[in-house]
């Protein structure tokens, strides 16, 4: 059912890799997905992929404060010899890899209430993307519709930090062959009201299949490849079922959950794109789609 749709969607999604280095030298990576919206290089992805960058900026300020306090203390006669030590989990280095080497995301707008980020790839060559997405008419979304989700889980990204160059090196990057779809149905629509600034609806699509780490920011789409929603999170809903299981001679009570994917509703996505002045192709009743300026 989704083979043609997956082929179409694979043309306009790419992986994003978030790399961080901690004060203790540990290097961590997180993989997500982004959707290239138009020929100008505008993209959307999950807002929570920027959480580590916000922490990085906060941690840098804290590190500067600690350094200044230690320097001022050492210059005072009779000051204690012991210096303040930074938290080993402070982020000291941070990097995004946006699907291609040498490409950055600029003009970034993040709304964590919705869990969406919008930005512009620079430099960007329109020929890198052979087909651009069409965003579904939000009035045509119905619970029970078959949908599919795609992104870059299980990518096994490998990253090291080059002390000499003061930069991250991805020794193993996600490839397009790593794209992984999983299907389900539109189970329910969730309305959480408006954002605090009153600009956007906090509308979500809950799906019968979970999102997998690495699919955040990727598309949830219908059988024609139209963008239905954008993967944001997975809910673990308790079923209040507590079966007993035996483990090595011990009886254990199991707690069972339903893993439900949650995506940002296309109505909200379109509101954000229009607010940021980003052109996109929208599903239309006559011509099949229309360009929203």
Short description:
The chain has 293 residues and is mainly β.
Low-pLDDT stretches are none
Q: Tally the beta strands.
A: 19
Q: What's the mean pLDDT score?
A: 93
Between the first and last Cα atoms, what is the distance in angstroms? 32 Å
Structural summary, described in words:
The protein is mainly beta and about 290 residues long. The protein is built from three helices and 19 strands. It has helices at about 5-10, 50-75, 265-275; strands at about 15-20, 25-35, 40-45, 90-95, 105-110, 115-120, 135, 145-150, 160, 165-170, 180-195, 200-205, 220, 225-240, 245, 250-255, 255-265, 280-285, 290. It has a six-stranded antiparallel sheet, sandwiched between helices. Strands 8-11-12-17-14-13 form a six-stranded antiparallel barrel. Strands 7-18-19 form a three-stranded mixed sheet, covered by helices on one side. It is globular and about 75 Å long. The two termini are about 30 Å apart. The model has no long low-confidence stretch (mean pLDDT about 95).
């Amino acid at each position: 059912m989704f083979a043609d749709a997956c082929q179409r969607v694979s043309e306009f999604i790419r992986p994003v890799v978030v790399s961080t280095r901690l004060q203790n030298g540990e290097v961590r990576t997180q993989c997500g997905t982004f959707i290239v919206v138009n020929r100008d290089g505008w993209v959307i992805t999950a807002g929570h992929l920027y959480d580590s960058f916000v922490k990085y900026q906060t941690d840098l300020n804290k590190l500067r404060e600690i350094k200044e306090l230690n320097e001022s203390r050492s210059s005072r006669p009779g000051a204690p010899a012991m210096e303040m030590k930074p938290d080993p989990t402070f982020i000291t280095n941070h990097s995004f890899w946006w699907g291609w080497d040498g490409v950055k995301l600029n003009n970034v707008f993040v709304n964590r209430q919705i869990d969406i980020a919008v930005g512009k790839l620079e430099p960007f060559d329109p020929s890198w993307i052979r087909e651009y997405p069409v965003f579904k008419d939000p009035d045509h979304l119905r619970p029970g519709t078959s949908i599919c989700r795609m992104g870059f889980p299980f990518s096994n990204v490998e990253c090291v930090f080059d002390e000499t160059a003061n930069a991250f090196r991805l020794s193993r990057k996600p490839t397009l062959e790593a794209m992984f779809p999983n299907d389900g149905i539109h189970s329910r629509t969730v309305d959480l009201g408006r954002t605090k600034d009153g600009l956007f609806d906090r509308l979500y699509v809950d799906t019968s299949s979970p999102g997998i780490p690495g699919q955040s920011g990727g598309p949830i789409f219908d059988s024609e490849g139209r963008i239905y929603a954008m993967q944001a999170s997975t809910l673990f809903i308790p079923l209040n079922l507590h079966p007993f299981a035996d483990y090595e001679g011990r009886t254990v009570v199991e707690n069972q959950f339903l893993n439900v994917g949650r995506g940002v509703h296309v109505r909200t996505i379109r509101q954000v794109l229009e607010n940021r002045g980003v052109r996109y192709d929208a599903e239309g009743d006559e011509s099949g789609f229309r360009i929203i300026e």
